[in-house]
Amino acid sequence: MIPTVQSLLLAPNTEIIDALETRLKSLSITHSETDKTILQLQAREIKRENTFLENRSTLESIFAVIDAGENLDQLKNSIVPILESAPSSINSVEVFRFILKHGMRSETINI
C-alpha cells in the first residue's frame, strides 16, 4: 500500500522527505494513461504533495512558535506573519486544521 501524506507526516523526521519523494514518483503521470479523470486526480495530488515539500520550512516555523507555549492570542499574532510571508501556495486554513487534528506540539507529529 502506498502511504498517504498524513501517514508520512506522522512518520519519524528522517523518513519523511524520502517517503514523500517516492510517493511523488509513484504518482507520476505516464504518457500511456488514457483516463482523463485519473490523470486529473493524480495531478491534483502531486500538486498538493509538492506544496507540502516546498513549504516544509514554513510548517517547521509554525511548530516552533507553537512549542514556545504562547497563549492563543500571542500564538495568532506570531503565526499570521509567518503565513503571510509564506508562498501563496500555503493554505492557512489547512495548516490550522492539521494543527488542531494532530496536536499543538511538534513532538506529537515528529516534525
Explain what you see.
With 111 residues, the chain is an all-alpha fold. The chain folds into 2 domains: 50 residues, no CATH class; 54 residues, no CATH class. It is built from 7 helices and no strands. Helix 4 runs antiparallel to helix 5. The radius of gyration is 16 Å and the shape is elongated.
Quick structural overview:
The protein is an all-alpha fold. It contains 7 helices and no strands.
How would you state the average pLDDT, rounded?
68
* Strand elements, count: 0
Helical element count?
7
Report on the biggest sheet: none
Q: How many domains make up the coordinates?
A: 2
Distance between the termini: 23 Å
The percent range for helix content is over 70%
Task: Give the structural class.
Answer: mainly alpha
Low-confidence stretches: 106-111
Any chance you could write out the topology, listing elements then pairs?
Layout: H1 5-9, H2 13-26, H3 36-54, H4 56-67, H5 72-85, H6 92-102, H7 106-109
Helix pairs in contact: 4-5
